[in-house]
Amino acid sequence: MTDRQCIPVDAHLSHDRRQLQISATLGTRLGLPCHGAVSTLDLQAAAAAPVVELVHGDTKYLVANRRLPFQGATNFRDAGGRRASNGAIVAWRQHYRSENLAKLTTADWDTIEELGVSLILDLRHPEESDLAPTKAPSNIKVVQIPIVGRLSGFSDATSALLTGKIVSIDDAAMVAMYLDLVSRHRQDLLEAFSLYRDSELPVLVHCTAGKDRTGIVVALWQLSQGVALREVLEDYSLSSLYRTLPRYLALQPDLLAAHVDPRRIHSYITTQRASLLGALDALGIALP
């Protein structure tokens, strides 16, 4: 069986971690039980990061949950499991991305160790990491590569928002921030990318929200693996799905107290593909 006959499938992991759920359309083809629009694949035992191989005809499906179930992080996910332009599958369970890890529980850290993560790349500047420290086990190496983007003239946009110094952030401001990141931290971004790419053991990269600085580094890695730009942008946009609502709910009381309308900073807590495309272009990445 060739790589071109192998297809990665993003699945949802059930709350009890005993089932993977996929679309009923694919499930029917594979002979799985259907429940409305969803098909379920029972696991032999509860697992946080299962990867299941299913074969139908001359096609092999690698089914896995992209988002990992953590109590203290909503945007911890697998950056692999994508199909490259040559038909090969970028491996699952080797490259991870996340928001900050400060709220991870003991059980969460146990899961990270089970994943085999040996290296964590922290892209936050020291003031960020001091406020929300990473308490990793001693057997996991943490490398800090401080990267700071100025947004509307402020290095700490969240503090500026909560003190009323910024009252609105639009898409154009986010594009400008990404370009500022590249302008001032080109070598840092490339260093993070190289460490992420070259790690022989499972590796995790994160910043504060896991969408901007982390998004650039992961995009560089995925492109280097031959993943199509369309899929790179799709992966980048998942941060809006997993991170935006929790972030909005956490900030809402303080924003209202600062008389900042949360609707006017929607661009800050979501992803804009134009921002990532601008950063990649500024880094000299040839885009189709």
UniProtKB/TrEMBL annotation:
Per the database record, which ranges form the Tyrosine specific protein phosphatases domain? 187-234
Could you tell me which species this protein originates from?
Answer: Ferrimicrobium acidiphilum
**What PROSITE patterns does the record point to?**
TYR_PHOSPHATASE_1, TYR_PHOSPHATASE_2
What is the name of the protein in this document? Tyrosine-protein phosphatase
Source lineage: Bacteria, Bacillati, Actinomycetota, Acidimicrobiia, Acidimicrobiales
Similarity remark? Belongs to the protein-tyrosine phosphatase family.
According to the UniProt entry, where is the signal peptide?
A: none
Q: Which domain of life is it from?
A: Bacteria
